[in-house]
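Exam revision sheet. Question 4 asks you to relate a sequence to its structure. Input first:
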Amino acid sequence: MKMGNYNVWFIGGLLLYLGGCAPAALEVVQVINQPLVVEEQSQASNASVEAPDPMASLTVDRFDVDVDRFDGGKMWTFDNPPVGWLAEAYEIDADSVWFAKARLGALRFGANCSASFVSGQGLILTNHHCARESIVEVSSEGEDLLAAGFLAVAAMDERKVPDLYVEQLLEISDVTRRVHGASRIVRGDNERVRARRDKASVIADELTSAAKMRDSTLRVEVVELYSGERYAAYTYRRYEDVRLVMAPEKKLGYFGGEEDNFTFPRYTLDMAFFRAYDREGNPAVTPEYYPWSQDGVGAGDAVFVVGNPGSTSRFGSVSQLMFERDYTLVQQVEAFQRRADILQSFVGMDGPGADALENMWFTTSNSLKALSGQLEGLRNDTLIARRSAAEFQIREDLFQVDSLSARYGTLFQELDEIQLSKRAEAGRMAAFTLFGTTIGSRILTRALYGYYYANLQRRGYVDKETLDEILEDALALEDVPAEVDRAMIVLRFEELLDALGAQDPTMRSILGGLPIDSLAATLVTTTALSDSAGFAALLEEGFLGSEDPAVPVISALAPLYFTAQQQSESFKNREDLLVAELASLRFALYGTDIPPDASFSLRLSDGRVGGYAYNGTRAPAFTTFYGLYDHFYAHRNISASWDLPERWRDPPETFDLSTPLNLVSTNDITGGNSGSPLLNQNLEIVGLVFDGNIESLPNVYVFSDRTARTVSVDVRAILASLQHVYKAERLVEEILKIE
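Answer key, structure tokens:
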């Protein structure tokens, strides 16, 4: 699972795919939308999704399935660490010192991944797939470090990565009362959600200002936990000077390619090293780091993951889960599949835009595989039955207490009713699946940015920081080949036509009687939005005032898109408030021993090393370099995914091919955990998390460790590669603390 790559942003921070909303999203949408009274749209839809009544299968015999103690998972927060559980399960006396050491060695790596300090001189370990963009960015003209790999032989050779940062969590404080207090004095779902977000933002700014008086590298983020029932202020130290130290060739870092993604056995060296520097330009002094274990771990050993899982959905209602199964995931899988079919025919082409095309293909194929696995899991009767049984128990326990019954008695009914309302809008919402993201036409996405940015300026939106962020994101879009953009435009308008109908006034305005293919061809050949330089010039001149052919297209389409987004946001706000109430009910009934859903905040997950039954056989706990060479010789003529770089084809005699390469364990992870350290009970690093197997994908909804596994690179493989293949003496000496 390339878990750091769910970074598909909707413009302006309106939505984050598999993530959350940016601050002030509602305010920004309203600034755009309020003056734009659009014509009432046709209610016809040629592609409404047919699905069973979401209430139809809520009844379940709770004795048919077992509700496991850890259905909600093991993504423990450092706010409420699992002291008792670690003692019970592993006989570990984990005190405050143990948890502090576990917390301080871990890092957030940029906006999507995890990492860790592995030396006292700021050395950082993370995944190769988390480093891909950085590797490209530090490549000089004529270099292809992604293909060739990189090793800084001396400190002066370490290359600074523009805009990359890492963050270390230093302090945690509870600010729930302050945030909730802001929402108690307003009415309306949107207003209450906005009041909480605004208050959280104010608190974060206030605490950041105070923290920076102590240390200018500190910043505070207010983290939402338990769907907003709890809020915590996390104080981070941010290192903004981060330099690339070492990365293997892409053929090693992504060995097996898309075919092996979300699978095991695996044979990949998905690793990269960076270094944090202080503001004076010296290697950062980092006494809190994870020592390197040369012995590694064995089957059955306890192991711990400390990282930043992105998002799970384990604590909503069953009706929400069924809507996800019948609509949301179906629409997303179909949208990604259509784009994958287009991109497949272009992957491997050379010339301008080839790198951006490869990145788009990587994200599309990864997302498609992940979402398909989640959908398959939800279509498994066992998963829904387990969630239904748990909900049945909550409903039963609720009505045993009069005070709880009075407060929460209609909670599930209200959640069910929202799903019915969402169902009525699902067909129209499907028209905009993946619209305004990096997965699609650059021309249409740039046009949407231009429309959005120009309207905010025209209508007096004065938050300069937000405007600058929008502009930065807009100009960061990389060019793709014209043929790809044309195919993506055709696909988008076919989807709109299917969802809205040929008589829809917006579609009639956009097409103007032209065939879709003709419109796409005209846009690609005549717009200035085909390349980044032309787009930048047009933004400077004033996009909406120009005569660019993309202007009338997006001017017709954008109001409908923003209206749909506002409707979606309204549903989400109501759901968020009700799910927070559901979390409050769980607290009242069962306490806070169950960890909250993932939120890209630091978590500790426990488990054990172990293989599992699959496909009529058994996957081992470990693979070795023997398996890597077996796959190379067996598959290299079938696909380039199993090819090896030249230096690996004839390894030195000192290189022991029986060295463990990858391993699996029962830890609870999800997107965002890429690059997380795998630790033994002494908090020594024994592995590097890079994936989950295909069986782990439904764990987004219910955790199970029967066959679901976390996949890691074994530290013994990393060390052996550095010593015998890359001859990285300086790096080895630092890791092993050799004087």
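Marking note for examiners. Residues 1-63 have pLDDT under 50 and may be disordered.
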